[in-house]
Design a protein that fits this description.
The complex is a heterodimer. By secondary structure, chain A is mainly α. Chain A contains 6 helices and no strands. Classes of the chains: A mainly alpha, B alpha/beta.
Chain lengths: 160, 176
């Protein structure tokens, strides 16, 4: 009897994470096409409460409400674009994980390419500078003589 | 100092300036696209008189505030004394949007903390909240005589925001 109780307890503990999952995974769409559309859309939209999570990831109440809105609007026959526009009209571009290309976001979109160009330009300049260094003009006769003298002197010192 | 050294120094200074400005900005404050747009319509049941309803259409012709509140909201307690005072001054009608709350709990909360609202309406499932772009409680909107949203306070109203932004805006809107 005690063993049975222990087994039951273990089973309850082992399965309890599933209960948590089940609470969130109530099927709301009858057909799978609508369900996958809803998931795709909610992965594109940011939850404004926990800003680094999508509506699909977040369990904040607002995210749940917005997921409900998406399901309802899909059921009402709205297109994906219409639903995204609905969200943007209420919460602004910030709700989109991929910001639209606008005059205010040009720097954001062009930034990486600009930085790359700048880096290539810098690299090019450094390499050219090095080549100029390598091709330093040969020594004049006077310099050559001085160098020989210096080298000989060093040598002499080393030997002594 | 050589000119070459000035370039990284310049980049560093510019970067520091950006980071410094960023320090004082609150990433939780998302500018609302609804400012300058007509107030989204609703027709909601009143908290104290469930037989009656209210919507922005009923308030046309006057400047009014919409304050989103709930009995479960902790920061609402922070701004509440200011709202009560504003309500007593009768400068501007305040409509409360009781957001995702239990009616009983909401009424009890007002009885305990004071009721600054001319009317509170019930948004049980938060749908009107979504239409108004509400993503946290409290939030406060200033609506002008034509029914256009002119300002949104995200988070609790502070004495500073009230004195420097909200009240001057209300006075200006009331004149026009």
């Amino acid at each position: 009897m005690r063993r049975l109780a222990l087994l039951l307890l273990i089973a309850v503990i082992a399965l309890s994470p599933l209960a948590v999952l089940a609470a969130d995974a109530v099927p709301t769409d009858k057909d799978s096409v609508a369900a996958s559309r809803a998931v795709k859309l909610s992965e594109k939209l940011r939850c404004l409460v926990c800003q680094n999570q999508t509506i699909a990831d977040s369990n904040a109440e607002l995210a749940q409400d917005l997921r409900r809105q998406i399901h309802e609007q899909i059921a009402a026959g709205r297109s994906d674009d219409e639903i995204v526009d609905y969200m943007v009209a209420r919460y602004g571009d910030f709700v989109l994980y991929q910001p639209p290309v606008k005059p205010t976001t040009v720097l954001l979109w062009a930034g990486p390419a600009l930085l790359l160009l700048l880096g290539v330009f810098g690299l090019f300049r450094i390499l050219r500078g090095r080549r100029a260094e390598a091709e330093a003009p040969p020594l004049t006769a006077e310099e050559h003589e001085r160098a020989t003298r210096l080298l000989a002197g060093e040598k002499g010192k080393d030997l002594s | 100092m050589s000119k070459k050294l000035l370039i990284p120094l310049g980049i560093f200074v510019v970067l520091c300036a950006f980071l410094l400005v960023g320090l004082w900005r609150d990433p939780r404050e998302v500018p609302s696209p609804l400012i300058g747009k007509p107030a989204p319509p609703f027709n909601l049941t009143q908290l104290h008189e469930p037989a009656k309803s209210l919507g922005p259409a009923d308030l046309k012709g006057q400047v009014w505030l919409l304050n989103v509140w709930a009995s479960w909201c902790v920061s609402c307690r922070e701004e509440h004394p200011l709202l009560v005072e504003l309500g007593k001054s009768k400068v501007v009608p305040i409509v409360g949007l009781n957001y995702k709350d239990e009616t009983v709990a909401g009424k009890r909360w007002l009885a305990q903390n004071g009721d600054p609202y001319n009317v509170s309406v019930v948004d049980r499932d938060g749908r009107v909240g979504i239409d108004w772009g509400v993503y946290g409680v409290p939030e406060t909107f200033v609506v002008d005589k034509a029914g256009t949203i002119r300002y949104k306070q995200i988070g609790p109203i502070t004495a500073e925001a009230l004195e420097k932004k909200i009240l001057p805006l209300i006075r200006e809107l009331q004149k026009s």
